[in-house]
Amino acid sequence: MPGRALPKTFGHAARRLETTMEWLDFYEATQQKNARLIERFLNLPVDPNYPLTWRNTPVEHLDADRLRAIIEGIFRTNRTVAKHTLVAIKKLLWVATDVEKWNKPQDDPSLSIRVRVPKSTKNPAWPIAIREKFEERHPIGTAARTCYALGFWLGNRRGDIRCS
Predict the structure, then answer these.
(1) Is residue 119 left, alpha or beta, with left meaning phi > 0 and alpha meaning psi from -120 to 50?
(2) Residue in 15, 79, 18, 11 with CA at minimum distance from that of residue 46
(3) Who contacts 139 (Cβ-Cβ below 8 Å, separation ≥6)?
(4) Per-residue pLDDT tens for 109-125?
(5) CA dist., res. 90 & res. 109, Å (int)
(6) Per-chain mean pLDDT for the chain
(7) What's CA 20's distance to the chain center, in Å?
(8) CA geometry: angle at 133 spanning 129 and 134, to 5°?
(9) CB neighbours of residue 56 within 10 Å
(10) CA-to-CA distance for 87 and 39, rounded, in angstroms?
(11) What is the DSSP secondary structure assignment for residue 29, as one 8-state letter?
């Protein structure tokens, strides 16, 4: 049928991923980010000289060298996007290996690839002296102290904690 993903391809794995309970358990923002990265990968050409994209390529044709070339290409411009793209591709490989059993686990080309992102220096942790001053100024029970405690002890992102 036109527009339908070919069997055992990355396009098929992407459609199947969206029906798994693991995918449905993600927050909507996480789903959107992963879907965007997966779509970007699916639209990449397998070879610049041919119109074939990864969407219509069987999962078994991705080897570690090709995956490394894809990730290194992204890494040159943005390390964080390279790491998240690798994670998104790993989700597709997980579908092919564990959910659908198209490939054997030992054939997973992503096992040999690691992307290390340097620690951010933009938002350093508060020094102990500053934390103590804040705790002194905002006693337990105030909105500011509750918000601070949620962020500090739970390690949530700023956007996950809404204190007004």
Answers:
(1) beta
(2) 11
(3) 145
(4) 988 899 988 777 787 88
(5) 9
(6) 89
(7) 16
(8) 120
(9) 15
(10) 13
(11) H
pLDDT in tens, 130-153: 999 999 999 999 989 988 888 888
DSSP string, 120-134: P-SSPPPPHHHHHHH
Residue 145: Cβ within 10 Å count: 16
CA torsion sign, 28 to 34 to 40 to 42? negative
Q: What are the structure tokens assigned to 106, written together?
A: 């030992």
Question: Which helix or strand (DSSP H or E) is residue 84 part of?
Answer: helix 79-94
* Sole residue written with tokens 């002194």: 136
Structural domains in the chain plus CATH codes: 10-112 (1.10.150), 128-160 (no CATH)
Tally the C-alpha atoms within 13 A of residue 116's C-alpha that lie toward its C-beta.
2
**Cα gap 45→53, rounded to integer Å:** 4
pLDDT at 1 over 60: no
110 with 93: CB under 8 angstroms? yes
pTM for the whole thing?
Answer: 0.73
Measured CA to CA, the distance from residue 104 to residue 117 in angstroms comes to 29
